[in-house]
Amino acid sequence: MDILQLIVSGLANGCVYGLIALGFVLIYKATEAVNFAQGDFMMLGAFITLGFTNADHMGLPFWLSVILAIGIMGILGYLLDMIVLRRMFGQSQVAVVILTIALGFVIRFIAGLIWGHEPQSLESPLSGLELRFGGLVLGMDEVWVIIVTVALTALLYVFFARTKLGIGMQASSQNQLAAYYMGIPVKRIHSMIWALSGVVAAIAGILFASKGSIDPTAGLLGIKAFAAAVIGGFGSLPGALLGGIIVGLVEPFAARYMPAGYSQIFPYLILVVMLVVRPHGILSQIQTKKV
Amino acid sequence: MRIVFKTSYDADIRLFKHKAQAFWYLLLFALAILLPFLISDFLIGEATLVLIWAICGMGLMVLVGQTGQASLGHAAFMAVGAYSNVLYQEHFSMPFLLSFPLAGLTAGVAGALIAMPITKLHGIYLAIATLAISVLAEDLIVIMEPLTGGVSGLFAPDIEIFGFVFNRYGNPVELYWLVLFITFLIVYLYRNMLRSPIGRSFAAVRDSEVSAKAMGINVARTKMVAFAISCFITGLGGALMGHFATIFTNETFNLIMSITLLLIIVVGGLGTIHGAFFGAIVFVMLPLVISLTRDALTVFADSGSVTIPGLESGLFGIILIGFILFEPMGIYGRWLKIRTYFELFPFYRKDMFRRQKSYLKTERTR
Questions:
Q1: Distance between CA A4 and CA B288 in Å, rounded?
Q2: Which residues of A touch B118 (CB under 8 A)?
Q3: Residues 101 through 130 of chain B touching chain A, CB cutoff 8 Å
């Protein structure tokens, strides 16, 4: 039973990593850039919800503030691409990486300015409830995290594989110029994918905050999500979830069976080993490389 | 505008393009030596810090600016330099003159070893791998507690050369001169490296791996050498940083520091030695400017001191975004543009420094 408990909490954690990784992968899939500020996006989404919901801030009903937060993060993502990232069009990938890192710094600063640096917890109706199966006690929040993550991944997968817009997004990533010639509005598609990843980040943030407390440095969780995205294969949506679950499952078991201090290095160790052995992940999308 | 008529290959790779350039750089160096007579001891301490950051920045510049390989994990190699320097002095009672270069070498070897598997990676994958290394290094320092002192850190003794002691507080001016001398040596080494075959192959790998390969350059080995040299210089900077900070822990060389280092060279200007110095100046002066502004505001508004936590990193992030969007060539690039404007006056054109745009194709299905 103990092990089952570990597995469930690991799964729930892993799903949050997977959701952040999903944000990376979405942007990577459509724009071939990596958003190093995705973790900070998640933190911002969580804080916006917290700011609307919590009694000592605005005290709105939870579900209303969830919708508001998701909407705001979507608009924010769209505007961010339109105002900032569109200027980077046609510049090197590394420049975008540095830009998004700087963006992360700024978001952390702004969040600290508005909501302070103390850890706060979201007053959500999900926390505190429990489900019991025999001896197994599941937190309602953990169950919700798992359900929402799986549903969202499936939805996004279908969106990319089936809908016209999703395929257009993939095309604009594979060859910007060719996609443009085919009549795909590449710039608008980029903005839309940033909006989408803002929405995903908001959902991840809400789920993360309902599981525990958050503070402006929570965005550094994004590094673990990198491990998830790389393990699963950058560019693959189910891969991101798979990687997230692997990282999430490894953590509690390492914490339990390894001496103190060793457990926290495991996600990164897996990441480095993965990069050395199979850089393109489990669900690889790389095909033969020609000059 | 001066036109240099080159008649031989030697003229092309000369350290200074022409006599006037040599004159200005020598004047700058003389000014740097005389600086302690011009400003206060506190500012000399800040100037020393600028030089140390510039050394670390030059280390990263070899990798990012010259070879075009992004690294988000260079604080790890600063840590290797700082820790090994102090450990050599403590455990083998080596003098500073020996432990300092050895610390650099240790960091260089560490860099080469790490580079071997990861130089196969490109662009963002390399960035992520180095990011992981930075995080791992932080935890490894804690795990290797018997050696590194863990979270309580390590105390760096004063630098001692032939019985003469350099201390940050005791004799800041002498310490400044020592660091200035080391900086000069590294700049000289850097310049010479750039005009040697290895420096040229760095540039070739940066500009196009495919054509570098076609020209007969061993790309994997070149990248490894770039990592080794880069980590060597960064390790030296880290060792100096250790002495300057006097006490350092796993927290000193964290991920934020790695990223800061990258931000320094981007703000300064990628691919130039000047860039490392400009970036270091901006980074060190920023807290000073902030505190001065705060003091001025307190006097002006008479409202008690206002402290905003995280203001420095937030402001630095904003500055960086501004530079990437509006001046991707950094401070040095802006200076070049201004200089060219006046040299060519009235013939300067807006698009003279325009960069070629490249449209992205996926890395996944190539």
A1: 54
A2: 275-276
A3: 117-118, 120-121, 123-125, 127-129
Q: Inspect the interface and report whether the beta carbons of A289 and B366 lie closer than 8 Å.
A: yes
The pair of structure tokens assigned to A284 is 């690889």
Judged against a pLDDT cut of 50, whether residue A284 lies above it is answered with yes
* Residues B42, B291: Cα–Cα separation, whole Å: 14
**Dihedral sign computed on CA atoms, order B69, B73, B74, B80:** negative
What is the token pair recorded at A54? 């919590």
Q: Which positions 39-98 of A are in contact with B (Cβ < 8 Å)?
A: 84, 87-95, 97-98
Enumerate the domain spans of chain B: 31-254
**Residue B159 pairs with which residues in a beta bridge?**
B166
R_g of chain A, CA atoms, integer Å: 19
Model confidence over B47-64: pLDDT tens digits? Answer: 999 999 999 999 999 998
* B108 touches B235 (CB < 8 A): yes
| Distant-in-sequence, close-in-space partners of A19: CB < 8 Å, separation ≥ 6 | A42, A149, A152, A200, A201, A203, A204, A207, A244
Residue among A261, A269, A276 whose CB faces B142 most closely: A261
pLDDT in tens, B217-254: 998 899 999 999 999 999 999 999 999 988 888 888 88
| CA-to-CA separations, A91 to A86, A265, B324, B355, in angstroms, rounded | 10, 34, 10, 9
Q: pLDDT tens, A111-166?
A: 888 888 888 887 777 666 677 776 677 777 788 888 888 899 899 889 888 899 88
Q: What are phi and psi of A59, to 5 degrees?
A: 70, 35
Beta-bridge partner residues of A136: A133
Name which of A224, A231, A222, A223 is nearest A46 in CA terms: A222
Angstrom distance (rounded) from CA A10 to CA A211: 12
Give the count of beta carbons closer than 10 Å to the beta carbon of residue B1: 9
The Cα B74–Cα B114 span in angstroms is 12
The one-letter code for the residue type at B215 is M
